[in-house]
Design a protein that fits this description.
50% strand
């Protein structure tokens, strides 16, 4: 009998402890919907009419940094061009030969930086920077770890579609 009573008290105590929350009065706060574009993004791919282009190291430094209402866009370019050695070939023509020594290190420097504001309605983003407004349809892929947008231009009847792909850092 004593064992039954002890066992009953243990079971009731266990149920009480499991079902009792320390803070029953707390109200769950709704999670704020965070736009997936918020973060740091680097250019990783560029396509022209579906064909992947080979990007320079400096192009791959292009960065977007999005916060809740503002963004920064940075573009990089070669700051130092390699010195060329000129040699004469057998026909006495001047031939350019790029030197491979350490004095010819190619460096990327920030070529342009703009700070602006953005807004979005679904995948339609409005970017305002330096008095210019750009409307872009941004598509997220890879569980929102990548996004891309496309720009279409037509010159002399030839249409070119460029796709820019950025990856979250």
């Amino acid at each position: 009998m004593k064992k039954k009573k002890t066992l009953s008290v243990l079971i009731i105590s266990a149920l009480f402890l499991v079902n009792c929350n320390k803070d029953d009065s707390s109200v769950a706060t709704p999670t704020k919907n965070v736009n997936p574009i918020i973060g740091i993004w680097k250019l990783v791919e560029e396509h022209e009419n579906g064909i992947a282009l080979r990007l320079s190291d400096c192009s791959l430094e292009e960065t977007y940094i999005f916060s809740a209402e503002q963004f920064v866009h940075e573009i990089y370019a070669v700051s130092q061009r390699p010195k060329a050695l000129f040699e004469h070939d057998n026909s006495n023509a001047v031939v350019e030969n790029l030197s491979q020594d350490n004095n010819n290190v190619i460096k990327c420097e920030k070529d342009w930086q703009g700070v602006g504001s953005w807004s979005a309605q679904e995948n339609n983003y409005t970017l305002k920077i330096n008095g210019t407004t750009e409307n872009r349809t941004i598509r997220f892929t890879n569980a929102s770890h990548k996004f891309y947008y496309e720009e279409t231009t037509t010159t002399f009847g030839v249409t070119i579609v460029k796709r820019y792909v950025y990856q979250r850092q």
